[in-house]
Specification:
- There is one protein chain.
- The longest helix has 15 residues, at 98-112.
- This protein is an alpha+beta fold and 265 residues long.
- Helix 1 packs across helix 3 (118-124).
- It has helices at residues 6-19, 98-112, 118-124, 151-160, 229-232, 244-252; strands at residues 31-33, 46-56, 79-91, 143-146, 169-180.
- The chain is elongated.
- This is Pvc16 family protein.
Length: 265
């Protein structure tokens, strides 16, 4: 959380971070400025840091709602979550590719140090126009991530800069900057008395157990006049089948005929 100077403090701290990490590949004097790209490109090596958009953070914009009670009393200090969008351009001698060399240093720095260091924020807050900034005390850290812009988006962005020639640049997003309100919430009423009781179910004054006093669910009854299939169909007795093994055994053990013709052959 921080006050209203957080946006300007992030911009100044970003410029200081880039300025202190230009070398050692670039052995020339480089000036880092925080302004919109100039209409007349400078001749000396220059890195231009331009904040072109401030937008609410989509994932945190409703995080602190509601902040007031029904009677209007402030319950929670409101905070506005913001994302800062920067356009970083580089200028210099085209024959020596100074602009490309400077942009390479910018990309390396923000990839190596994506989170804004606290000591850099403190150095930025030492400027007279940023006196009173408390961004360094905020537990929320500011992180820089590159923004991918196609040709159409780049053309629209530079088209808004009237009479400003295009130059090689990169875009970055700073997340998350929280700006707090000035009004302090009213302190809560202190607890005057604490009453804690432990009573078993059934004791006087004890709550009823879950489900007590409720009628048990009635069993479902079949519809009137409906008969089961066993009642409607007559019962038929099925004769038991004699096992095949038993029939064969009885046929082998049956007595032979003793008639008068049994010994004729």
């Amino acid at each position: 959380m921080s006050n209203s100077l957080a946006i300007a403090t992030v911009t100044q701290a970003l410029a200081l971070l880039i300025e202190s990490n230009i070398g050692p590949e670039t052995d020339i004097a480089v000036k880092v400025v925080t302004r919109r790209p100039p209409a007349d490109p400078p001749v000396e090596p220059t890195v231009n840091v331009f904040l072109y958009q401030v937008a609410p953070n989509p994932s945190m914009r409703h995080h602190d709602l509601p902040t007031r009670a029904s009677d209007g009393t402030l319950l929670k200090r409101p905070a506005a979550p913001l994302d800062l969008h920067y356009l970083i351009s580089a200028y210099g001698e085209e024959a020596e590719l100074v602009g490309q060399r400077l942009l390479g240093s910018v990309v390396r720095t923000l990839h190596e140090i994506p989170v804004l260091p606290r000591d850099v924020i403190e150095r930025a807050a030492e400027r007279p126009h940023l006196a009173g900034s408390d961004l360094a005390l905020s537990p929320q850290r500011v992180r820089f991530t590159p923004t991918v812009m196609d040709i159409d988006e780049t053309s629209k962005l530079w088209g808004m800069l009237h009479q400003t020639p295009y130059t090689l640049s990169v875009a970055y997003q700073a997340t998350l900057v929280l700006i707090e309100g000035r009004e302090l919430p009213a302190p809560g009423v202190p607890v005057h008395e604490r009453t804690v009781r432990a009573l078993p179910f059934g004791a006087p004054g004890a709550p009823e157990p879950p489900g007590a006093g409720e009628d048990p669910p009635a069993e479902p009854q079949p519809p009137e006049g409906a008969a089961t299939a066993a009642e409607e169909s007559p019962q038929r007795r099925v004769p038991a089948r004699k096992p095949a093994g038993r029939r064969a055994r009885s046929s082998r053990t049956s007595p032979r005929s003793t008639g008068p013709d049994s010994g004729k052959g």
